[in-house]
Amino acid sequence: MSQWNDREPIFLQIRQRLIAMILSGEAQEDAALPSVRQIATDLAVNPLTVTRAYQSLTDLGVVESRRGLGMFVSPGARERLLVHEREKFLSEEWPRLSARIEALGLDIQDLLARKPS
């Protein structure tokens, strides 16, 4: 069973896992993705939760439903996700990180010296 972050809806956490699969290359373009039922069973969640995660990725144009076959990674999905995730990071996460870095008096050399491997 999976550990869930109580601060974020489960469908968004599933969505992020699917995004990570696409960005890492684990799920290639035109490749079939796990079925809604398979993910729901593996993660012990309601199939509607998984459907909602897939729908949000369909809305982004990175996943497509093929009638009778299932869900597939759309052509160009990785590039679209890179653009989307970079913009999301810069607009949502970076302002908080930047403010924290400034509040701590850190500079670029401090950050690069502690770069995780």
Automatic annotation (TrEMBL):
One function term, GO molecular function aspect: DNA-binding transcription factor activity
UniProt keyword list: DNA-binding, Transcription, Transcription regulation
SUPFAM superfamilies: Winged helix' DNA-binding domain (SSF46785)
Domain of life assignment: Bacteria
Domain HTH gntR-type positions: 8-76
InterPro entries registered for this protein in UniProt: Tscrpt_reg_HTH_GntR (IPR000524), WH-like_DNA-bd_sf (IPR036388), WH_DNA-bd_sf (IPR036390)
Protein name according to UniProt: GntR family transcriptional regulator
